[in-house]
Amino acid sequence: MKLADVDPFIGTQPADLPEPRGIAASWWWPKPQIGNTHPGATFPLGMVSACAYSGAYPTGYGEYDLATEGVPPRLRDRPVASGITHFQQSGTGAIRKYYNYVRVTPMLGSLDALGEQWDVSDEAAAPGFYACTLSSGIRCEVTVGPRSAVHRYTFPKHRDARLVVDLSLGGLDIPYGATVPLRAHLESTAPGHAEGEIVVEGAPLAMHMEADAPGWRQLLWYDRRLMPGGKRLDFDAIRPTTLRPFGLMWAGPAAAGQTIELRIGFSLRGVERAARNLRADCPEGSGFAHRRTATQLAWTEHLGAIRLSDPPEHPREPDREARKAETRERRTVFGTALYHSLIKPSLAMGESPFWPSEGPFVYDLCTMWDIYRTQLPLLTLLRPDRAVELGNALVTICEEEGNFPIGYRMAKGSDRFARQASALAHTFLSDLCLAGFEGIDWDWALVHMLSDLRRTYGEDFLTHGRAEPITHTLDIAFGYWCTAQVAAAVGDRRVREECLALAGRWRNAFDLDTGLLRDSTFYEGTKYNYSFRIGHDMAGRIALAGGDEAFVGMLDRFFGFGAAPVRQPGVGPGDVEMEGGYALGRFEGLNNEPDMDAPWAYTYAGRPDRTAEIVHAALHQMFGTGPGGLPGNDDSGGLSSWVVWASLGMFPVAGQDLVLLNAPAWPEARIDLGGESELVVQTTGFRRVGRDTAPQYVQGMRLDGRPHHAPWLSGAQLRAGGVLEVDLGDEPGDWGRESRPPSHPHEASPSSRSLR
C-alpha cells in the first residue's frame, strides 16, 4: 500500500455507514459506535504521537464525550483546539486519562488567553503528519520520529506572537479526566534550548527542546505570568489543589508568513537521553522537512509490505467511473486499516522508567484482549523482528512485576488488570515459539508462563477445575495449551504433559445441556459472544454441541440467519434497550472484539461457505471511508487488523501458528515476508465484490502449483511464501468441506486437578 491509500480521519467521528442489508442487518452493536481514532502524526510502533487537542474523549482530539454504549454525545459543538499535545491512544475505548502531555500552543497576544479553544479548519493528515489552521490565522504542522516531535507554525503579521509550551496539562476535559504532574522540573539551558521533566501517573517523562525563533525572547512562566530572567522552575510536590499552569515560551513580533520551528526529544529516562533521542531523530542542522521525509519513508516501508491489484477494468462496463471510485474507496479502507494496525503498541528499547536495566520496553498494550487475535499475528507476520522485541518486553515485565499484563500503559500501576481476560501473553509467545524465531530465552519464558498461570483466576482453575467469570476458564485452559508448546520446544516432557492435561479443562466452561458456555458474568458481551471462540480442540467443542449440524445451527442463530433487522442503540440508550439487545444473543458485527473469530468457526464444521458469507457481509457493510467509516472502537488496531486479514482471505488462529483460508476480497495480493520471501495470493474467476454484491466462494486452491484441499495454512507454509492460487465462483462448492483444520484433544487427568 502507499501513503495515498491512507486516510487518518477514518474513525474520528460516529459511525456513518449505509443501512446494513441482508444478514448484516441482524447484528447488534453494544459498544460506542465510533472508531475513537485520531488523525495525528504517528511513527510505526513509535513512542510519540501528536495531534490537535480539544480535550475530547478518549484521545483528546475531536468533538465527542465519554460514552460506553451507543452513539457518543457531543462534548464540543464544532472542531476546536487549544494547541498540539503528545502521546495519544489509538482508537481505544477504555475510561482513562490518556496522556496528552506537553501542550504546544501558538498564540497572538497575552498569556491570559492560554487554554482558549480556537476553531479548527483546513485539517490535513497523512502517515507521520498532521496540520490545521486555527481561527487566529496560525497554521500548525507537526511530524514525529520514533522518540521525538517536530512542530512548525506559520504566523500572520503580529507585534506580539508567542509559542507557548505548557507542561502542566494532561488528560481529558471530562470529569476526573485531568492528569496532574506530581513533580516537575524545567530549565532554560541556552538561547533556543530548554529541558524538563514531569512525573505523571508515576512515570517520569523527560524532554529536550530546541526552538528556531530568531529574535524572539525565551521566557519561563508560571500561573500565566512571565518570569523575566528566570532560568529554572522546580516543583517537588504538586497537588490538584495547588496546581497552577507553568511552562516556557518564545515571544516576539511576527512577519506575515514567518515560521517558528520547535523540536522536542522525549525519554522516560531523563533529559540527557531525551537530548540523545532528539539528535538521533533530528541530526544537527536538520528540522521539520528532514523528519517528515524520514517518517514518510518509514511508513512507506511498513505499508509497502502488502500490495493489492485492482480488479480489471472493462471499457464497456456500465457505471465504469462509479466502479473505479468504489475500488479507490475499498483501497482506502484497506490501506487505512493496515496503517491503524501498525501504530501501537509503543516499543521503546531501553526506555523503561520502572526498572534500571536496559532492554526492550513496551507500553500502550491497550489491550491484549483487543489485539491478541488479529493485530499481534499481523505484526508477527510482517515485522517478526518487532514481534520478538515485544515478546521479550512481555517476559521482562513479568520478571520485574510478577505477572504478564493484559493492559499496560506508560503509567505506574495503571490499567495493569486481568478483568478482561487471562493468559493472553501466552498465546502470543506460543506463536513466536512455534514459528522458531530466535532471540527469546524460551527456558526463561517458560518459567514465567507457568508462574503467571497460577495467579489470580488461575488459583481457582487449579483448585476447582474452572474459574469465574467462566471466560477465564477458556483463557487459562488455552494458556496451558500454549505453554505446553513452549515446554515441548525446550524439551520438558513432564511440564508439557501436565500443561496438556490442564488444557483439557476447557470443557468445564461449557453447559453440556445447551452446548454453550455456563451462565456467568461476561465482559462486554454475553455467553453467545464467547461460546464460539476458536480453541485448540474444536473437534471436541463441536462434538460437545452435538456434532457438525447442531453446531452450524447454533452458529446460524448467533449470526442471525433468518432473523429480522435490529435497531442499533442511539445516544444515551437506557437499560431496557441495552438489555433487550444483549438478550438477542447476537454477533456484535465487529463493533467489538469478543466474537471477531466466530465467523471462522464454521470452517471447523465443514462449512467454509458460511464463513465466506459472514466475512463478506462484515467486510463490505461494516467498514467504509470518511470519518464515520468504523463500526466501533479501533482498539489499537485490533479492529483494523481484522479488515486486513479478512481482505486477504485469511484469519490467524492465535497461539496455534495457523491461518484459516477464505475467499479474498482482491484479485491479487502480494505480502512481503522479508528478505526475498513473498506470498502471492492470486485468484481466478474473481469478480468485483462490494456492499451490494453476493459473496464469492472458494472452489479450489493450489499452493505452488499443487492442489491444496485444506482450508488452512500452517504458519511455516505461510512464512515460506510462494504462490497461493484461489479459484472463485458464485456458488458454494465442495472445497474445504471434508478437510478440517487441526484440533488437539487431550483429556484432563484426575491427578492434574490438584497440581500446584
Note the topology:
Blueprint (H helix, E strand, L loop, with lengths): L40 E2 L6 E4 L27 E2 L2 E3 L14 E8 L9 E9 L2 E6 L4 E7 L2 E8 L2 E9 L16 E8 L2 E8 L2 E10 L4 E6 L2 E3 L4 E4 L10 E9 L3 E10 L3 H11 L6 H16 L2 E4 L10 H22 L4 E2 L14 E2 L4 H4 L3 H8 L1 H18 L22 H11 L7 H12 L3 H8 L6 H20 L2 H11 L6 E2 L4 E2 L9 H5 L6 H7 L3 H12 L15 H9 L24 H14 L16 H10 L2 E4 L4 E4 L6 E5 L5 E7 L12 E7 L2 E2 L4 E3 H6 L1 E8 L27
Parallel strand pairs: 27-31
Antiparallel strand pairs: 1-2, 2-4, 3-6, 4-5, 5-10, 6-7, 7-8, 8-9, 9-18, 10-17, 11-12, 11-16, 12-13, 13-18, 14-15, 14-17, 19-26, 20-21, 22-23, 24-25, 25-30, 26-27, 28-29, 28-31
Helix pairs in contact: 3-17, 5-6, 6-7, 7-10, 8-10, 10-11
Describe this structure in words.
With 756 residues, this protein is α+β, with helices and mostly antiparallel strands. It is 27% helix and 22% strand. The protein has 18 helices and 31 strands. It has a ten-stranded antiparallel sheet. β24 and β25 form a beta hairpin. α7 runs parallel beside α10 and α10 packs antiparallel against α11. The longest helix has 22 residues. The relative contact order is 0.12. The C terminus is likely disordered.
